[in-house]
Amino acid sequence: MPASYTIDHADKVVRTESWGILTDSEILDLYARLAADPEFDPAYKQLCDLHKVAQIAASSETLRELANASIFDKGTRRAIVVANDLDYGLARMFQTYCDLAGVAIEIFREREAAVAWLGVSSDTAAHDRHRTP
């Protein structure tokens, strides 16, 4: 499973990270695991780090489905960090679907810019957190 998440209660942020080849089933599984986690709070912000992803092999249908069935509260800030132009384009497509669904997402190429926009710490080793593989 090339995806994991950390729920950081101190910063009220969910940090998701993916690597390798990210497929439809892996994306949907990550969000299903997160939604089922009793520690998850849909009002928390999200920092989605995709800079280690070699390829996003997700379909536009999955991206649309994920945007329309967001597990996060509407208006909750979510940031996606990507490393290359192709991933940026796919993230922008997802952002468009999210905009239509009333979900606030911004795309970044630098993690620190995303962290600043979210207003959270860049420390991923917060003491008050819950992590899953």
The Cα radius of gyration reads 13 Å
What is the topology, as strand order, of the major beta sheet? 5-4-3-2-1-6
This entry's quaternary arrangement is single chain
> What string gives the helices and strands in order?
EEHEHEHEHE
Q: Could you say how many structural domains there are in total? A: 1
CATH topology-level fold name: Transcription Regulator spoIIAA
* N- and C-termini, Cα separation: 8 Å
Q: Helix count?
A: 4
Q: Helix fraction?
A: 25-40%
Give the mean pLDDT.
89
Q: Classify the beta-strand content into a percent band.
A: 25-35%
Q: Please, what is the CATH homologous superfamily?
A: STAS domain
- Structural category is alpha/beta
Instruction: Characterize the overall form.
Output: globular
Which CATH class is shown? Alpha Beta
What is the level-2 CATH architecture name?
2-Layer Sandwich
Largest sheet composition:
6 strands, mixed
Unreliable spans: none
Q: Mind sketching the topology for me?
A:
Blueprint: E1 3-8, E2 13-23, H1 24-36, E3 45-57, H2 60-68, E4 78-81, H3 85-101, E5 105-108, H4 111-118, E6 129-132
Parallel strand pairs: 2-3, 3-4, 4-5
Antiparallel strand pairs: 1-2, 1-6
Helix pairs in contact: 2-3
Key structural traits:
single chain, 133 residues, alpha/beta, Transcription Regulator spoIIAA, 6 strands, 35% helix, globular
